[in-house]
Amino acid sequence: MLLARTDPPILHHGVLKEVATMFDMPVRTCQKIWHKGQAGGFDGLKDKRPKNSGRKKIEISPDAIKNVELHQRTTLKDLAGALGVKKSTLHNRFKEGCFRRHSNDIKYTLTDENMKARVKYCLSMLRETSEGEKSFDPMYNIMYIDEKWFYRTRRNQKYYLVNDEQRPRRSVKSKNFIEKVMFLTVITRPRFDSEGKCIFDGKIGIFPFTYVEPAQRNSRNRPRGINCAHTYIYKGFPLWHFIMLTSLYLQEHWLLRQ
Question: What secondary structure letter does DSSP report for 56?
Answer without folding.
Answer: P
